[in-house]
Design a protein that fits this description.
β2 and β3 form a beta hairpin. This protein has a domain of 76 residues: Alpha-Beta Plaits, CATH 3.30.70.330. With 112 residues, the protein is of the alpha+beta class. The protein has a four-stranded antiparallel β-sheet, covered by helices on one side. The chain has a two-stranded antiparallel sheet with strand order 4-5. It is 21% helix and 27% strand.
Length: 112
């Protein structure tokens, strides 16, 4: 069972998250999500347990409790939504697309 853990202190590490949640049962993985540009914590993470029972126990034990000075939000993680965009193969950007897979002209650009 995968859990979302929100309102983490920016100093909390993935290893610290794993250690804390292992009090509830067997942790398969623990990850604090970091900003890809700054490598700083984004204030949330995920903990995956080997069993649903351990995950439910962790929610009961840790939701609304304190870790590193912050009150945790702990609940079952929802599946990721496909948000489209550059990595998701989603929408077209700006006016650079004219429907024929050719870029439009402009200063310094030839139409190709």
């Amino acid at each position: 069972m995968k859990l979302y853990v929100g309102n983490l202190s920016f100093e909390t590490t993935s290893e610290e998250l794993r250690s804390h949640f292992s009090q509830a049962g067997s942790v398969e993985s623990a990850l604090v999500i970091e900003d890809r540009d700054t490598n700083r914590s984004r204030g949330f993470g995920f903990v995956e347990f080997t069993s649903k029972e351990d995950g439910v126990r962790a929610i009961e034990m840790f939701h609304g409790t304190e870790l590193n000075g912050r009150m945790l939000t702990v609940n079952e993680a929802r599946p990721r939504e496909d948000r489209g965009g550059y990595n998701g193969g989603g929408g077209r950007r700006g006016s650079h697309y004219n429907g024929n897979n050719h870029r439009r002209g402009g200063y310094g650009r030839g139409g190709w």
